[in-house]
Every structure is written in structure tokens, then in C-alpha cells.
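Database export, one record per block. Field names are fixed; values are copied verbatim from the stored entry.
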Amino acid sequence: MREFLEFVIRQLVEYPDEMMLSEIPSGKMTIFKVQLRQSDVGRVIGRNGQTIHAIRALLASSAARHGQRATLEIVE
């Protein structure tokens, strides 16, 4: 799941080297926190939040296949 998130987000942002993705596991729930340059936050969120909703849906689906739960948060 982490590799998937890194790949997708790096493709979206203008400064992929400044992206930091951290993973916080807690039982069956995993929280992924991504830290981006301020100018890249809008690219990941997308118009009306469509991009971030799609990424979160794919992440939740992938986690469910492994019997887990996962969420993605953007840290500013």
C-alpha cells in the first residue's frame, strides 16, 4: 500500500523529492500521513476534492483485500 501511495502521489506533484510519507500502524488500522510543499497540496486534493477521494477509495479497497483498514491524511 505504501508503494502504491508513493507512486501515485509522486506522479501528481511538481516537487516529488520534497514529499514525505509516513506510516502509523495501530492494529488493523494504518494511517498514512503525507507532507507536501504548499503548492503541491492543491494538486493532490484536486478540484472539489475529487483526486484525494479517488486515492482514498483505492487505498481503502487495497487495505480491505488484506483484511485491514487504511486512511490518508495530508499534513500541512
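Remark 1: The longest helix spans residues 50-65.
Remark 2: The chain has one domain: 2-75.
End of record.
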